[in-house]
Structures are given as structure tokens and as C-alpha cells.
Amino acid sequence: MADAAMPSRDDAVAWGVACPSEPRWPELLAVLATIALQLFLPDRVIRGLGNRALIPALEGALILVLLIANPGRISKEQARLRVVGVALIALITVANVVSLTELIHALLYVTKTAGRPLVYASVPIWLTNIIVFGLWYWELDRGGPASRQLSGHRRPDFLFPQMSVPGSSPGWAPRFLDYLYTSFTNATAFSPTDTMPLTDWAKLLMMLQSLASLVTVAVVISRAVNILS
To answer: Of 60, 55, 137, whose CA–CA distance to 99 is shortest?
Structure first.
């Protein structure tokens, strides 16, 4: 129970404070970006997903549900919509894992002349990896954007620089861009940079993202060198 207790007022800046209400549009814009990136993938990479339009259609349907139920700012009373947001992120994750698996298989076994489009296809998959893990971090940290607005939210899952230096940013709270930046740096450095994971699930997610990014980059670079040679 001690881990779940909130810090004292004097330590609040160092440990994190209740977040203000966030607009929903950054999350939806990120999801729309992943849908656009999926449309650039060649048929060979998305054949494991069945119909090319199936996944974007399902993602669009979940976005529509969120827009109808809560088109403006995310309020603490909207916690019940979290299951829709989690389902949307999970759908994007599954689609990207399948695409990455198909890409790696194709890069290892296709002919040299067919390799260039596949190397190019790695870019939207890698970018989707960054966006989707940024969404996961944003959705799961301290119970989600609705729960983070409560004064009694659980302890933070990520330690941002502003939280570790008392007095540096009074009243600061992370927003979606902070989680997206954390995802980007983790995908490029293959390890945490300035934001540290504090809980087991946060460490596991960052490990999985680093592994996916590392495998993508390693296989693509190897294939590209083979093509150029």
C-alpha cells in the first residue's frame, strides 16, 4: 500500500502531480497517422492481415466511437471509454507486429530485385512502432489520462526529468507529446534516455519496443547492404 500513496505537498514536484484535463485530438491525430502509414505498405507485407482495408476500417470505427462519446477534452468521468482506447491501440499493435513479421520474412527470402520496395516499407513500420508505443505509454501511465487527473492516482510509471528536480517546473504534468518523445528516443537509442521506467510493465514495454526497433534496423541495414553490393 505504501507504493500507491501519494507524496507529500513538499515532494509533489519531484514525484508527479495530478494532471489537468487533456484534449483528445493528439491521440486521434496519432492514430490517423498510423492509418496513413499502413496505406503505404506493399501487399507482400500486409498479406498476413487479410483484406487491406479491414484494419483501417476497424480503427476508423473505434475512432468514431471515441469522437461521438467524447469529442473534446478527456475528463476524469470518462474512464469507461478507456477500454475503447486500449482496444484501438491493441489493434494497431497487432497489425504492426504482423506487418513487421512479414517484412522480416520477405527481406530474408525475396530476390535482390524485389528487395528495394521492402526496405522502403520498413520506414512506415518503424514510425508506427514509435507512435503505437507512445500511445501505450500515454494510455497506461498512472492508470491512463482520466485517472491521472485524480488527486489520488497511483504512483507514476515513468520518471520524467521535470519530476526528478524539485522546483524546476512547479505543477508540471506529462502530456501526450512527452510520451511520444519518450517512445522516439527509446526506439532510436534502443534504451531509455532522459525518462526512466519505474514499474515492471513500463520496463517490459520499453524492452519490447527496443527489441522491435533493433531487429527492424538490423535486418533492413543487412538487406540494404546486400542490395547495394
So the answer is: 55
| Cα–Cα dist 43/180, whole Å | 28
- Tally of CB atoms within 10 A around 69: 12
Residue matched to cell numbers 517484412:
103
Query: For residue range 178-211, what is the model confidence (pLDDT) as tens digits?
Result: 999 999 999 998 888 889 999 999 999 999 999 9
Residue whose cell numbers read 522516439:
184
Which run of H or E residues covers position 74? strand 73-74
Range of the domain at 73: 20-228
How many domains does the structure of the chain reveal? Answer: 1
Grid coordinates in use for 146? 482520466
Kindly report the pTM of this predicted structure. Answer: 0.83
pLDDT tens digits, 94-122: 988 888 888 888 877 766 546 677 778 88
Give CA separation, 23 vs 71, 72, 99, 148, in Å.
9, 6, 30, 14
